[in-house]
Amino acid sequence: MTIPTTQRAAVIETFNAPYTIKSDHPVKQASQLSAGQCLVKLDYAGVCHSDLHVRNADWANKPNLPLVGGHEGIGRVVAIGGSDHDGSVKVGDRVGIKWIGNVCGKCEMCRKGHESCCPLSFQTSHGFRVDGTFQEYTVSFTNYVTPIPEGLDGASATPILCAASPKLSQAVNGLTVYKALKQANVVVGQWVAISGAGGGLGHLAIQYAVTMGLRVLAIDTGEAKKKLCLELGAEKWVDFMESTDLINDVKAATDGLGPEAAVIAAGDAKPFNQAILYLRSKGTLVCVGMPGGAATLNVPVTLLIAKSLTILGSAIGVIRNQQDVIEALRIAALGKVKCRHEVKPFEEINSVIDDLAAGKIAGRVVLRF
C-alpha cells in the first residue's frame, strides 16, 4: 500500500495545554525505519488517565516536547524496517500498541519475567518517551507489538492494551489487575476494596474479582460510575466525594473490620493512604495507579507493624507465570470480563481529556481515526 507523507496527529507542544491537532504531521516512511521497527496504521486509540498526567507534566520525570501522546492502539503493520527482521510480524498483520514499546529480553529483570522493569522499557514508552498512538501512523517494535485476532472488535480490545503483555491478546483482558488481585493474597468470600473502580482498569478489576469469588467494595464517585460498578457485581459502593468519613464508611461496609485487601487503580495519592487506615489486620495494599506530582505513601510505622500489613507495587502485567495466563484466558473465554467503552471521533480528543480530568468517564473512551 502507499504510505502518505502526512497524517492527523494530536501533539503536546506545551504542558498543561490542549493537544494541538495537526493534519500535516509527518509519517515515517519505510526507508526511514530502523531494523526491528515497524510502522502501524492505526484504526483506534484508547485514552487513559496516564495520558492526562503526561500532558500536564504531573510526574517527576517529564517527556521531551513536542510529543505525540497515547499508548493504546490497534491497527495493521504497513512497513517493517531492515531486511533481517525476525519474522515475528509481517506486513498486513493486525497488532496492538501499548505503553511499553520494547524490552531487551536479556537483562536480569527480563529473565525473571519483570519486563516492565527492563531499562529499555523506560526508554521506549509510547506517548511518553517516544511518539504514541494519537496519530494515524505510529512506529513501534516488531518483537513487542501484540498480535490481535482478526475476529476481535478493535474498539473493545484497544483499552486492554494498557494492561497487557506482548504475547497476550484481548482475551487476557486486563492482566495487570488480574495480577494485582492474585498478589492481594485473598481467597473466596473475602473483601477487596477497589479504588478507581469505575475507571478503565478498575471496572476490569471488579469483574475479575467477582469471578474469583471475592466480595467487592467499589470506591469512586458519580452516579454513572456507581451504576457501572454495581452492574458489574460490586456488592457495596462508597462515593469518596459524598463520604464525610471514608475510612469508617469502608469499614462499616465490610463487616465492620475493613477489607482483607485493597487494589488502588486511582491516579491520586489520597486513596493509597486511606487504604492503610481501613484495611483489616493482615490486609494487603496493592498499588496499581500512577498518581501525579510528588505523591507519597505516608504510612504510620506503628500501625503497619501492629496490623501486620503488606504493601505491594504491581506494574504492567507480563507473562511471569504461565498459570496466571491460563487462568486469565479461561475467565475471558467464558465471557466473564468485558471492557465497557465508548467510541468517539479522533478530533474530540481534547474534550475527552477534559472529561477524564473531571471524572466524568465511566469505563474507557476509544478514539476512531
TrEMBL record:
Residues 200-330 form the Alcohol dehydrogenase-like C-terminal domain. GO terms for molecular function: alcohol dehydrogenase (NAD+) activity; metal ion binding. The keyword Zinc applies. Its cofactor is Zn(2+). Its EC number is 1.1.1.1. Residues 35-150 form the Alcohol dehydrogenase-like N-terminal domain. One of its GO terms (cellular component) is cytoplasm. Keywords: Metal-binding, NAD, Oxidoreductase, Zinc. It is an enzyme of class 1 (oxidoreductase). InterPro entries: ADH-like_C (IPR013149), ADH-like_N (IPR013154), GroES-like_sf (IPR011032), NAD(P)-bd_dom_sf (IPR036291). Belongs to the zinc-containing alcohol dehydrogenase family. This is alcohol dehydrogenase.
